[in-house]
């Protein structure tokens, strides 16, 4: 793996009362490389900014995570280079759906994560926004096409 992940865990063990299954860790150590700082990704197309038109938290999270993956790949990396996510949700009841869906994209990666419940996001229909950071080691970086 590209980075050292300290104290890996899965949310199914940490939060047994919730239906979660997300690989995370307490800290990530990186060395050198290229840092990819992404703005908070929302449930909209990267190409035209159009919302996906769904009020389902899982569907919104799929779009958000697809955007994160696309941006990391456009920067010359892979999801294995993801080191941190900050998850913003507008309703605590969406937490399980959001984290389960996010977990599909980060299986085996173990980034650090912070989760916040906020009163609103920039558009009324948005239920989730995820701010992400990746670090691509120099020896793994692929120049974007």
- What summary fits the major beta sheet? 4 strands, mixed
Helix content: 10-25%
Number of helix segments? 3
Q: What is the chain-wise order of helices and strands?
A: EHEEHEHEE
The CATH topology label is 60s Ribosomal Protein L30, Chain: A
Give the amount of beta strand, in percent. 25-35%
**N→C terminal distance:** 24 Å
Which CATH top level class fits?
Answer: Alpha Beta
Average of pLDDT: 91
Radius of gyration: 15 Å
CATH homologous superfamily classification: RutC-like
Provide the CATH architecture.
2-Layer Sandwich
Overall shape: it is globular
Q: Which stretches are poorly predicted, pLDDT < 50 over at least 5 residues?
A: none
The strands making up the biggest β-sheet line up spatially as 3-6-4-5
Query: What is the number of beta strands?
Result: 6
> Given the helix and strand composition, which structural class is it?
alpha+beta
Q: How many domain units?
A: 1
Brief summary:
23% of the residues lie in helices and 28% in strands. It has helices at 11-14, 57-74, 95-105, and strands at residues 4-10, 23-29, 34-37, 82-89, 112-117, 128-136.
Topology:
Elements: E1 4-10, H1 11-14, E2 23-29, E3 34-37, H2 57-74, E4 82-89, H3 95-105, E5 112-117, E6 128-136
Parallel strand pairs: 4-5
Antiparallel strand pairs: 1-2, 3-6, 4-6
Helix pairs in contact: 2-3
Structure, described:
- By secondary structure, this protein is α+β, with helices and mostly antiparallel strands.
- The chain has one domain: RutC-like (60s Ribosomal Protein L30, Chain: A, 2-Layer Sandwich), CATH 3.30.1330.40.
- 23% of the residues lie in helices and 28% in strands.
- It has three helices and six strands, in the order E-H-E-E-H-E-H-E-E.
- It has helices at residues 11-14, 57-74, 95-105; strands at 4-10, 23-29, 34-37, 82-89, 112-117, 128-136.
- The strands form two sheets. The chain has a four-stranded mixed β-sheet, with helices on one face. It has a two-stranded antiparallel sheet with strand order 1-2.
- The model has no long low-confidence stretch (mean pLDDT 91).
